[in-house]
Amino acid sequence: MSRKVERPALLVRVLTELGAGRITEGWLADKHCFVHGETDGRVIRINPAIGVVDTVIHECLHRLEPSWSENYVRRTTTWVMRRCSDEQLQAIYVEYTRIAKKRKSHRRTDAG
Ligand SMILES: [Zn+2]
Question: What are the 10-residue block averages of pLDDT along the chain, 112 residues in total?
Answer without folding.
Answer: 66 93 93 91 96 97 97 97 93 95 85 67
